[in-house]
Write the structure tokens for this entry.
Amino acid sequence: MDETTFLEYLSYPFVQNALVAGVMISLCAALLGVPLVLRRLSFIGDGLSHVAFGAMAVAGVMNFSDSMVLSLPVTVAAALLLMRAGRGANTGGDAMLAMLSVGAMAAGYLVMNLNPSSSNVSGDVCTTLFGSVSILTLTTLDMWLSIGLSAAVCVLWLLSYHHVFDMTFDEAYARASGARAGLFNAVAAAVVAVVIVISMRLVGTLLVSSLLVVPAVAAMRVAKSFKAVCAVAAAFTVVCSLAGILIAVVAGTPVGSTIVGADIVAFLAMALIGRILK
Amino acid sequence: MDNLVECRDLRLGYGSHAMPPCPDFTVEAGDYLCIVGPNGSGKSTLLKAVAGLVKPLSGTLSLAPGLSGGRIGYVPQQGPLQRDFPASVREVVQSGCQSTRGWRPFYSRGEKLRARDAMERLGIVPLAGRCYRELSGGQRQRALLGRAMCGGCRLLLLDEPTTGLDPEATADFYTLMRGLNEAGMTVAMVTHDRSGALESATHMLTLGPDASFERSARHG
């Protein structure tokens, strides 16, 4: 593809919308990823994305016009459940999560095969696992829902930035100072679930956790304060997602894996920079 | 006298596991209480109960009115999660103002000044921009003390603050605590280090089989 066709691509409103949606989704995933990674909860993102896969499969079979209608509430419920289970600490929270996520995956695939909603089941499964082949195939409703929800999550996160710091750095102290830790954790779990469901459209079930985890881990290689980690993670993910989507448009590669590829390359660069700075 | 904490017939525990009874004790303003006892005797749990993190199974634990929110400066034991945390000392100290900040999304000028003041009192102003995970154990303790003082606390609760510190840093820490205490701060500290603790403490609470509550040598 030469330069003029590329610019022509960019002039289409739906390409622009796709870019905005992709960047917004990645941005809020990266912001939420910072406390998740620091509280050693990255695996929860992975588990929840598997639950969302199961819910999406069921929604597809039940012929919902938009599968988010089902996958959103189911994933939020699973997130709240997992958070409570983690607190009980009698049965291992991580083992519970492993069971739940594998169970949801198996159920989802089973349902999709028993009641195929289209002639191409493996194609459907592949799209759910690895994201749309092209972000341009997202429907307009998806797009605006994604943009709206991501914007809401970003604003909420920024407004509660100091609470995020307090609870991430030292939950015990925050509780002793009168923080409403239960409420905070419940809202955080629900928001993570929402972000996972919306970012699944972009990168697919299997790749969602990379949007949450990679920017935070990369930022921690170079940044020395919480604020800097958040800022670097945000910048990191915006650059990588833009690059990933543009490369995918130009080269015709699948969006999700191209973004994750860009993430990993950039992470290696950051790791190198971090080592040199030390 | 001005009783900050008063415990009567207190029983603590988790779920069905009850810990041995805790002797009755009171903490008055200006006291320096050391809590000692074997592992599992409930020292940390007692501190958490005073901080309001654990509910007593039975008995009474009453706090002076006004001793809520940031007025209790709780310094928990350090976990591996925190030692690795990318936060600047300024961010850590400032987070002590969280109880006065409430839902406001930023810190006010007054709160920033309080953070600065706390760092000055602890001699950690030069460390303000440094990353928490690059600090020595003693410097970390000072940052956490700064956070508690920034919250305007009247009672410091310290859970094994000298664990992992070398002898010199431990001695420094005790000197610092003694100074804070003489300047009017009430201190309650869980420790394994009986001899080091005894030098400064005005009261000693022993948990476990030989439970007792007594005044120690320093008490006037």
Summary: The first strand of chain B starts at residue 3 and ends at 11.
